[in-house]
Amino acid sequence: MKKLPFVILLVSVAAAVVACSHGPQWRQLVLVDSLMTQSLHDSAYYMLEQVDPDELSGENERMYYDVLKCELSQLGIKDSLHFEEPFDSVLNRCIAYYQNAGDQRNLVRACLSKGKYLLKQRHEHEKASTWLKLAEDNLMQINDFRLSYQAYEALATLNYYSGNYDLAMEYAYKTLACAEYSGDPHQMTYAYNHLLVLYMVRQEPDSILKYSKRSVSLLSQMSPQNRSHALGNLAVICLNNNQLDSAEAYLEKARAEHPQTFIDLRLAEISYVRGNHALADSLWNRALCTTDLRDRFAAFQSMANKMYDAGDYRGTADAAAHMLELKDSLAEQMRTTEVLTIQKKFDKEVERRKLDRFMMWSLVVALAVLALIAAGIIYHIRRTNRAKERMMRDQVLISDYQRQIEQLQSSGKDVTREVRTLQQKIDTIQAEQTAQLSEGRALYERVVSGESVVTWSKEQLLKFIEYYKVVNLAFMMQLERDYTRLSPGNRLFLILQDMGKTDDEMTHILGVSEGALRTTRSRLRQKRVAREKG
Fold first, then answer.
1. How far apart are the two ends of the chain, measured CA to CA in Å?
2. Each residue of 187-198: pLDDT tens digit?
3. Is 115 exposed, middle or buried, given 0-12, 13-18 or 19+ CB atoms closer than 10 A?
4. Cβ-count burial of 165 within 10 angstroms (0-12 exposed, 13-18 middle, 19+ buried)?
5. What pTM did the predictor assign?
């Protein structure tokens, strides 16, 4: 299913929403961005030309403008995009800004532009590798198949130039996956061509034929440059099969679409094989006019091979001498091992940092949770113990005061004043208990009136049990001695029995059947027997 129209719709809607909250210049930039997302590069270029840089407000607009301008300039649409400072400096400024701003999408675009610039204009493969891998790493945080395609395509090209063909193949297939997801025929064509070239290096005829057919099927939908590449690849296949006429026809069509150095080289080889050395020399000389060291080396290599086959050893020696002159410069550019090492090291470092961050934050969260749980448990235990100790102390005092009152009253003397003093102490303690356990007392009174506890929360149940210590401390102390690890429900059951509630009343209060009541009573009896035997 072609998903590009849906993606374009989403991007356009998002662009419209964002643009409404900014000024006219920002809205123009968002429109340029939207057109680029739809691969409408000529329209995007025209709209960017309408933006006056002097009217941009704020650093955010300026950086957005620079990123779009850099990206468009690398597409080769127009030659009139002018930069007042070095291209490299513009990208460095954009990268620093978007790193600080946390704008992952535009950071990826800036890193991609810098990586492509270092790869294609400067031929600095090591530096290009670093920026392209940084762009790839940040792709994980956004969902943009257009940028993913560009990153994988650039990494495939980098590794092809560096001789890392296995890694180039891996990125070429990622490029194809992004192209197929978007449904863009231009992207699919380029991906097919890239795979075709890599399978030529591997000399796998079946795969060469497979991707050649797929590429040809999209010729009518290609740009002239891509069409030239596709036709040139077909010509190479014909040359490998010694089909010179078919190869020459494909190469002439390819040159008509878009002149390229490798086309002149292949035509020169065909002319030399046919004996037309003058035409071959003319084509080789035209190919040597390129400033790309790889193309120049390929031209001298092509000349040396054909001249050697024809027995022209002087010409072969001259071409070989030129190749030796270029060899050191070309080797410095390529640095195959260093580029591959940098990429692997970068990947490992990224994974290590991610794992370290994950482990660190997991440990911090786990320790924080454990600390909170431990603090909560300790606080609850201390608070409960303090409450129990205070309750026990108060009840002991009440019992002692009551005993003193009984002794005074039985002495036969006039002890009204002493009794009143002791009674005031008892009243004071009970008043404090009532204030502390007011909710428990209210719950107790509800149970006394026969109200059901079915809808009570655990907290209410515990407050009721705590308050019952005021009502009958001796009984609650007896429970502590006779049972171990009683649940709040079992404590409530025994308290209701102590309150003199009948079985009918208890089934209503607890919301259980008579059978469940008998079962609970039997289990509690067994617990008590077991405790006594122990």
1. 76
2. 887 788 788 888
3. buried
4. middle
5. 0.50
